[in-house]
Amino acid sequence: MNAEKGLLIVLSGPSGVGKGTVCAALRKVCPNLVYSVSATTRPPRPGEQEGVNYFFKTREEFERMIERGELLEWAEYVGNYYGTPRRFVEEMLEAGKDVLLEIEVQGAMQVKRRYPEGVFIFLVPPSMEELRRRILGRGTEGDAAITERLEAARAELAMMAEYDYVVVNDTVEHACERIRAIVTAEHCRRDRLMPRYQKLLAEGK
Amino acid sequence: MNAEKGLLIVLSGPSGVGKGTVCAALRKVCPNLVYSVSATTRPPRPGEQEGVNYFFKTREEFERMIERGELLEWAEYVGNYYGTPRRFVEEMLEAGKDVLLEIEVQGAMQVKRRYPEGVFIFLVPPSMEELRRRILGRGTEGDAAITERLEAARAELAMMAEYDYVVVNDTVEHACERIRAIVTAEHCRRDRLMPRYQKLLAEGK
């Protein structure tokens, strides 16, 4: 039995910084992390499984979840809702599992209001120049669109002040290593270990 | 040039928990950490070397160092003085090096008053029974000294509340791994990275 709750780890950062790539790499090196499954109103694609890829919901169901506060965070993209169901995350945390959420900065701030005890990690590019290169590398957009994306990324970078940790995504390997270290270190934080501490002292009497 | 100061990492814990063993193992796996060498009036144990394990001092020499303010912290423990020469530590931190101090709990609290920004790690035994075994296993002391050590260790365990991190010394390897992770994570802490953050934002303009 595990009496300790798991850690809620929120990985976020500006658009284009490489959150998805780092998260995919983490899945390989951190098999003990539980990856949150999102809810969506978009229809399942062939092969997608309920509760594995997504929790599939109707608009009515999703809106009821919003009303009942059953989502840790949510947003609407291209006519579909996407969000993080609170129950799955809470059940995993109660079972002592660490849960990783990879989300956009707006969603991360919603989570922070509900779970200030979460571990908030902000992924940053090694330089603005490198972020520009990554945004350019994504595809063929006009100068105006690129400038807009960069402006948005700059505004998102200012959100760094709201996070506990800043991880530079210089290489995916290094970023993963730092995130793993943060998770290990957070488990050693004295305030989180207080219950075990009380037990150890009682044992000595 | 490194504009960032190094981290002062203070490793402490109750007598007999294995601070010395963990510290010796860290030396091998963390060549970038600078290890502060303590001064002491206790006689060398077999294999201990002057200037490597300790600076061995007479009581008169040690008291002169106290008077001159040459110690970052010092304490008298089971009839012997232990202390940390101040200048070396401060020079290394200014040069951007992380410095590890392995010290007794009384000394750690003195350092905390002077360096609240330090990283305070408390090493604990997996159980009180295991701590008793380790203290007995040393076999370098008489019964009275052992009883005294156990009583002191129990009182020292209560000091845990003053630390940032608690590391269970179940195996030396695991303890080292956790300490390395703590150092890595502390370097990622947002409040420590603020200067770099300001630079990154300015660069984007």
TrEMBL record, chains A, B:
It catalyses: GMP + ATP = GDP + ADP. Keywords: ATP-binding, Cytoplasm, Kinase, Nucleotide-binding, Transferase. Its main location: cytoplasm. ATP binds at residues 13-20. Transmembrane segments: none annotated. Signal peptide: none annotated. PROSITE patterns: GUANYLATE_KINASE_1, GUANYLATE_KINASE_2. It comes from the Bacteria. GO terms for cellular component: cytosol. Residues 6-184 form the Guanylate kinase-like domain. The keyword Lyase does not apply. It is found in: Cytoplasm. One of its GO terms (molecular function) is GMP kinase activity. It is an enzyme of class 2 (transferase). Its EC number is 2.7.4.8. Belongs to the guanylate kinase family. PANTHER family: GUANYLATE KINASE, GUANYLATE KINASE-RELATED. Essential for recycling GMP and indirectly, cGMP. This is Guanylate kinase. It comes from Calditerricola satsumensis.
